[in-house]
Amino acid sequence: MNKNQYKSGFVSIIGRPNVGKSTFLNKVIGQKIAIMSDKPQTTRNKIQGVYTTNESQIIFIDTPGIHKPKHKLGDFMIKVAQNTLNEVDLILFMINAEEGLGKGDHFIIERLKQTKQPVFLVINKIDQVHPDDLIKIIDQYKELYAFKEIVPISALQGNNINTLIEQIEKYLSEGPQYYPPDQVTDHPERFIITELIREKVLHLTREEIPHSIAVVLDSMQSRENGQMIDVAATIIVERDSQKGIVIGKQGKMLKEVGRLARMDIEALLGSKVFLELWVKVQKDWRNKLSQLRDYGFREDEY
C-alpha cells in the first residue's frame, strides 16, 4: 500500500462497568496491558493500547466504566470517560449480551447523543446467549440510537474480533503512525506494574477488599549484574481491617499477591524480578484530592 494511504485514528471503548472492555483490549493488542477483574470499576485511568499493521494504526482508549459516582474518585473516573468521547475519531459502545439493556446504557446513550463521532455498538459475550436473544438485543438498541455499525463479538474467545478491526479501519482517515510499530501502550512500565499488583489484590481478596486500594511504586532498579530487577511497591488501603486482610495470616495473602504479580511483571519486563510489597493505611484516601494526585489520578492530564 502506498504510504500516503496509511490510516490511523483514536478509538474509545465505552460501556457500563464489567462488560469486557479490558478483556477486548488485551485480546486485540495480544498482551496484557489492562487489568481484568469481575468487580466493577477495575479500570481507573485511560489505557491506550496501540494496534499496528502495515495498513493502519488504531490507538484504543479503554475508559473507566460509566456509572453514577459515589466519591471524588468516582467523579474523576466519570470525567475521564466523558472527556474522552470528544477527543477520538470513533467510539465503540460495548455491551454485555448476557445482561441486556439497563439503566446505565440509557445514561451512556444520552452522552453519545451529544457527540458527533461515529459510534459502533459492540455486543460482547455472544458465546453466552442464544442467537435469537441476540437479535432481540440488537433491535432494542437500534431503537435508541443510530449506530454506524453493529458488531457482535466474544472478546474472551476472540470471535469476530478481526471483523470489528476491519470495520474500524473503514472509518479511519489517512494519518500518520503515531507510535513505533512495536509499541503496544503509551503507559510507562511503572504504571502497568502497579496495575498488575492491584489486579492480584482484587482477585485474591474477592469481596473482602473493595476498590479502596491503590498501589504506589516506591522504586525499580536493575542490579549491577543485570540479572535481576528489584521492585518495591506499597499497597494503600483505607482501613486497618483491610490491611489485615491483604497481609493475611502469617503474611500468606501478601506473599501470594507478590508471587502472582511477580510472574506477570517478569513477563512484562523480560527479566527476573525481586518484588517487595508493603501495606499502608490511608484513611478515606478516595475522597482526598491531594492523595488522589499522589496516587496518579490527575484530572489536568485529561
Structural class: alpha/beta
Shape, principal axes of CA atoms: globular
Strand runs, count: 10
What top-tier CATH class of the largest domain fits best? Answer: Alpha Beta
CATH homologous superfamily caption of the largest domain: P-loop containing nucleotide triphosphate hydrolases
State the share of residues found in helices, binned by percent. Answer: 25-40%
Describe it.
- By secondary structure, the protein is an alpha/beta fold.
- The protein has two domains: 3-174, 3-Layer(aba) Sandwich (Rossmann fold); 189-301, K homology (KH) domain (GMP Synthetase, Chain A, domain 3, 2-Layer Sandwich).
- Helix content is 35%, strand content 23%.
- It has helices spanning 21-29, 72-85, 103-112, 131-142, 161-171, 189-205, 240-247, 252-269, 289-294; strands at 7-14, 47-52, 56-62, 90-96, 119-124, 149-152, 173-174, 214-222, 228-237, 272-281.
- The strands form two sheets. Strands 1, 2, 3, 4, 5, 6 and 7 form a seven-stranded mixed sheet that branches.
- Strand 4, helix 3 and strand 5 (119-124) form a beta-alpha-beta unit.
- Helix 6 packs antiparallel against helix 8.
